[in-house]
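Customer escalation, tier 2.

The customer says the design service returned an amino acid string that "doesn't look like it belongs to this structure." They asked us to rerun it and document both sides in this ticket. The original structure tokens are below, unchanged.
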């Protein structure tokens, strides 16, 4: 049965949709565990207390931003600098929210705030491609909340392990970051503009890394978006 054809007005269907969303998120939740271990251990290594390290995951809830923030904290960066860096790193979530605005807009405020907080790359990968008719808040809640719990448990494990195992960041756990995004991006390459955006971003990021350009990630992101936009424009002009 299609998960979106269930009567969403009954408590039993709410529960069923919630657990279906959680089940759909399982592969990405598993993939992010090494990343969570790395984020937790790195926070402790950077000088944060156990409570502060866990609060990063519970409140900030952004893997890449947490790693950058803890690294900047360790380097002695100012709060303003860290906030600015986090703003740019997480700015893609603004695009996610704009893309899902029509689906979320009819919901009560508590739902909009809750799903907005849970909106990650992973949740967008699960629900971002759904139409307004397909989208269901309970399914999205199950996916987003299960991922939130998994991320916090993984970082907690990393915090505990980092207190006893030195230099966990040298174990190669950072590959989980790339693996997670590969798992998110590849299934969504269904059109030529998306394919072009991914290829251009990949080439630019590799080149910037080889040239040791620190802002390579931002350059690759902008380049990929421009390539996708131009491809979509050219394709539209030929129709």
């Amino acid at each position: 049965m299609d998960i979106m054809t269930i009567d969403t007005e009954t408590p039993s269907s709410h529960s069923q949709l919630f657990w279906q969303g959680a089940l759909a998120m399982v592969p990405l939740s598993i993939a992010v565990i090494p990343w969570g271990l790395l984020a937790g251990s790195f926070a402790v290594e950077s000088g944060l207390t156990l409570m502060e390290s866990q609060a990063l995951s519970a409140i900030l809830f952004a893997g890449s931003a947490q790693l950058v923030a803890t690294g900047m904290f360790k380097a002695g960066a100012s709060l303003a600098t860290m906030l600015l860096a986090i703003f740019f790193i997480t700015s893609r979530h603004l695009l996610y929210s704009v893309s899902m605005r029509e689906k979320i807009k009819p919901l009560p405020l508590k739902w909009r705030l809750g799903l907005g907080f849970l909106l990650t790359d992973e949740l967008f990968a699960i629900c971002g491609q759904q139409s307004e008719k397909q989208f269901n808040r309970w399914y999205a809640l199950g996916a987003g909340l299960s991922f939130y719990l998994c991320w916090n448990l993984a970082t907690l494990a990393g915090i505990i392990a980092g207190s006893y195992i030195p230099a966990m960041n040298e174990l190669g756990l950072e590959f989980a970051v790339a693996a997670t995004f590969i798992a998110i991006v590849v299934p969504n390459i269904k059109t030529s503009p998306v394919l072009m955006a991914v290829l251009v971003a990949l080439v630019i990021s590799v080149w910037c890394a080889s040239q040791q350009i620190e802002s390579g990630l931002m350059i690759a992101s902008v380049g990929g978006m421009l390539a996708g936009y131009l491809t979509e424009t050219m394709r539209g002009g030929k129709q």
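Tier 2 assessment: The sequence is consistent with the input. The radius of gyration is 19 Å. The chain is about 75% helix and 0% strand. Sent an explanation to the customer and offered a walkthrough call.
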